[in-house]
Amino acid sequence: MKTLFIGYGNPDRQDDGVAWHILAGIANQLGLETSDSWEDPLPSTPEVEFSFNLQLTPELAQDLTAYDRVCFVDAHTGKIPENVQMVDVTPEYQTSPFTHHLAPEMLLSMCESLYHYVPEAILISVRGYQFGFEVELSPFTRSLVDEAVYRSMGWLKKERELAYA
Q1: 3-state secondary structure of 95
Q2: Residue 3's closest CA among 35, 39, 51?
Q3: Which pLDDT score, from 0 to 100, does residue 156 have?
Q4: Whole-prediction pTM value?
Q5: Which of 56, 46, 157 has the alpha carbon at shortest distance from 106?
Q6: What pLDDT was estimated at residue 78?
Q7: What is the pLDDT of residue 70?
Q8: Would you state the pLDDT for residue 83?
Q9: Which end of the chain, N or C, is surrounded by fewer C-beta atoms within 10 Å?
Q10: Contact 5, 64 (CB under 8 A)
Q11: Strand order through the sheet with 69-76
């Protein structure tokens, strides 16, 4: 069973880049060595790969067809009450007031329409508190990274156990 962790956000906008920190934490938990820079590719295993992007783009729909499961990782604002949220994601056509914004649901919808395939998908999002022009996470968002990594690893381990049961 092949899994993709796909994080997105702008690391130069503080907490908007929290996804990269979570991906690096998951890679480290898998015993992989990571760089300190989000610009370097993250290592992978035969079963788990990582992709970090500034934003989701339509071109990624084809990439998703290579995976059984996809975990989207992003930051969210105070509109979502939980500090770390994990939810299932299903295909859904959506429009956006911002031409550069593509939600995971819409990306899965593109995957389904173009390739007649939809991987199992979840979204893990972490609350961001500061979105200034800095590369460092705010202290509170940084404190949430370990919980997001822990929950991601739980999902990965659970799904692995089910696949091999």
Answers
A1: coil
A2: 51
A3: 93
A4: 0.93
A5: 56
A6: 81
A7: 97
A8: 95
A9: C
A10: no
A11: 48-53, 3-8, 69-76, 120-127, 84-88
All residue ranges of the chain with pLDDT < 70 are: 96-100, 159-160, 162-165
DSSP strand pairing (3-8 vs 48-53): parallel
Q: Are strands 84-88 and 120-127 parallel, antiparallel or unpaired?
A: antiparallel
**What amino acid occupies position 85?**
Q
Q: Cα–Cα distance between 79 and 77 in angstroms, integer?
A: 5
Those residues with Cβ within 8 angstroms of residue 56's Cβ, 6 or more apart along the chain or in another chain: 6, 8, 72, 102, 103, 104, 107
In the chain the first and final C-alpha atoms are separated, in Å, by 12
User: In terms of Cα–Cα distance, which of 23, 16, 24 is closest to 137?
Assistant: 16
Task: Tell me the torsion sign for CA atoms 135, 136, 137, 138.
Answer: negative
How far is CA 66 from each of CA 11, 43, 60, rounded to the nearest angstrom? 27, 17, 11
Backbone phi, psi, residue 69, to 5°: -140, 145
**pLDDT (0 to 100) of residue 158:** 83
Q: What is the length of the chain?
A: 165
Count of other CB atoms within 10 angstroms of residue 27: 20
**pLDDT (tens digit per residue) in 136-164:** 999 999 999 999 999 999 999 886 676 66
